[in-house]
Amino acid sequence: MKKARRTRKQKEIVNLVLKAADEGRELLFTELKQQLSYTACNAAINQAVENLDACGVIRKKKLDNGRVVLSPTLDAYSWRNHVMVPGHI
């Protein structure tokens, strides 16, 4: 399993997934796109989500109706208190 780099954008995605989990639900991909502080195409967001899934930080699951939901793994909770070093994105 590869290691996630913990960029600012990756950290934002993980925190949004964790926030939804704290509310007792999974985050829809469409909700993620709406809640991000930056604009990006679906492909770019999907690539970030795929990388986080490959690293074991979040789980991406496609439902029968075609919707995609995101849920955190236990590793995601270590990101909550991770301090970013200034100048490193």
| Basic shape | globular
What class, by secondary structure content?
alpha+beta
What is the end-to-end distance? 22 Å
Enumerate how many helices there are, as a single number: 3
Number of strands: 3
Proportion of residues in helical segments: 25-40%
Parts with pLDDT < 50 across at least 5 consecutive residues: 83-89
Instruction: Give, in order, the helices and strands.
Output: HEHHEE
The rounded Rg comes to 12 Å
Structural overview:
The chain has 89 residues and is of the alpha+beta class. Helix content is 39%, strand content 13%. The protein has 3 helices and 3 strands. It has helices at 8-22, 29-35, 42-54, and strands at 27-28, 58-62, 68-72. The chain has a 3-stranded antiparallel β-sheet with strand order 1-3-2. A hairpin with a 5-residue loop joins strand 2 and strand 3 (68-72). The two termini are 22 Å apart.
